[in-house]
């Protein structure tokens, strides 16, 4: 039976999955971190790092929270909380930590 609770270090554990610590992509043996409902990412980005390509056709709602640093998210609208179908890319203007939450969790 998978664990019904988990403790850990988001930066260490996220390193194995490009920062993602919860979502559909986690093995069911990971217990509560395997979810079809939500995805959570602890994103640690060095200054100058960027996602040059835009996402396209995403069907999830996304919330990005700046924990530390200076970060620019490029959107096709003016909002930082965006719903399905809003394409985006990003750039770390300084060393930054971002928490990203998306739902639902989809392949």
| Class by SSE composition | mainly beta
State the major sheet. 4 strands, antiparallel
What is the rounded distance between the termini? 24 Å
> N-to-C SSE series?
HEEEEEEE
* Helix segment tally: 1
- What's the domain count? 1
Helix content, binned percent = under 10%
Query: What is the strand content?
Result: 35-45%
Low-confidence stretches: none
Going by CATH, the architecture would be Sandwich
Strand line-up across the major sheet: 1-2-7-4
Structural shape: globular
Give the tally of β-strands. Answer: 7
At the fourth CATH level, what is the homologous superfamily? Answer: Jelly Rolls
Average of per-residue pLDDT values: 86
The CATH topology label is Jelly Rolls
Please characterize this protein's 3D structure.
This is Signal peptidase I. The protein is built from 1 helix and 7 strands. By secondary structure, it is mainly β. It has a single domain (10-103), classed as Jelly Rolls (Sandwich). A 4-stranded antiparallel beta sheet has the order 1-2-7-4.
Give keywords.
1 helix, mainly beta, globular, four-stranded antiparallel β-sheet, 107 residues, 5% helix, Jelly Rolls
């Amino acid at each position: 039976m998978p664990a019904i609770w988990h403790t850990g270090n988001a930066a260490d554990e996220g390193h194995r999955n490009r920062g993602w610590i919860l979502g559909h992509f986690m093995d069911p043996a990971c217990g509560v971190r395997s979810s079809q409902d939500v995805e959570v990412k602890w994103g640690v980005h060095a200054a100058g790092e960027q996602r040059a390509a835009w996402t396209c056709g995403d069907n999830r709602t996304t919330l990005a929270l700046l924990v530390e640093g200076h970060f620019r998210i490029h959107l096709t609208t003016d909002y930082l909380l965006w719903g399905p179908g809003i394409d985006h890319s990003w750039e770390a203007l300084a060393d930054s930590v971002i928490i990203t939450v998306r739902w639902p969790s989809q392949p």
